[in-house]
Design goal:
The chain is α/β, with parallel strands linked by helices. The protein has nine helices and nine strands. α6 runs parallel beside α9. The radius of gyration is 18 Å and the shape is elongated.
């Protein structure tokens, strides 16, 4: 069975009603990044940071996977599929994708602020308990924080994602500008000559050999499925 690796960014979830961070009217225009997505912000005002992610969780539970998510999951009928996502939502999992690598963390999870990547102190939130209360602590006694990779922090899963990319027979990129590193560098780990498809409605500077389907996630995936699942 051929292996597909799918790299998804904010454009993948935009059709589900989740604001992208960098586009016009995106979250970074509404919320200063230095106050909500850096380790320094967490140290300065953990309550403010937690409240921001509490708000995002409420938006996420009201969202549903779009057709693009569902069609990515459908590829598993004929391919071995690994999804590598820059998104912190769980819409790929909700759509049925069974192998998802989150590069930037998971919004529905919280963790120790002292030992972020220790699964012993991570927990998944669900309705109706979506908020981290001021002063709420993890099992190791440190403050609970969002299980999110803040700017300036390492990306623990990037080596795992690079390994998957190196084994891909087909590489698909959906809804990302290819400007966000280290994720944007994953295409460089693919074997020479494999098909690389980019689905994005914008003009994206893609390297030679990349087949650009200049459409949104759902429409672009409909076109790509016709190509791949003949």
């Amino acid at each position: 069975m051929k292996k597909i690796v799918v790299l998804t960014g904010a454009g993948m979830s935009a059709e589900s009603g989740l604001s992208t961070f960098r586009d016009a009217n995106g979250l970074w225009e509404q919320h200063e990044v230095q106050r909500v997505a850096t380790h320094e912000a967490w140290e300065d005002d953990p309550v403010y940071v937690n409240n921001f992610y509490n708000m995002l969780r409420k938006k996420l539970v009201a969202a549903r996977p779009n057709e693009g998510h569902l069609l990515v999951a459908k590829l598993e009928e004929q391919y071995d599929v690994t999804v590598v996502t820059q998104n912190v939502d769980n819409l790929h999992e909700m759509a049925g994708s069974s192998n998802v690598i989150h590069l930037h963390g998971e919004l529905m999870k919280v963790c120790s602020s002292r030992d972020v990547d220790n699964p012993r102190y991570q927990k998944t939130l669900s309705e109706p308990n979506l908020e981290v209360a001021p002063g709420e602590k993890a099992g190791d006694g440190s403050l609970l924080r969002p299980f999110i990779v803040f700017f300036g922090e390492g990306v623990p899963n990037i080596s795992l994602a690079a390994n998957e990319a190196s084994k891909a027979d087909i590489f698909i990129i959906i809804g990302t500008s290819l400007n966000v590193y280290p994720a944007a560098g994953l295409v460089q780990y693919t074997r020479p000559g494999i098909p690389v498809y980019l689905i994005d409605p914008k003009d994206v500077r893609a390297g030679g050999g990349v087949q650009h389907i200049q459409k949104g996630a759902s429409e672009g995936m409909r076109e790509l499925v016709k190509i791949l699942m003949k």
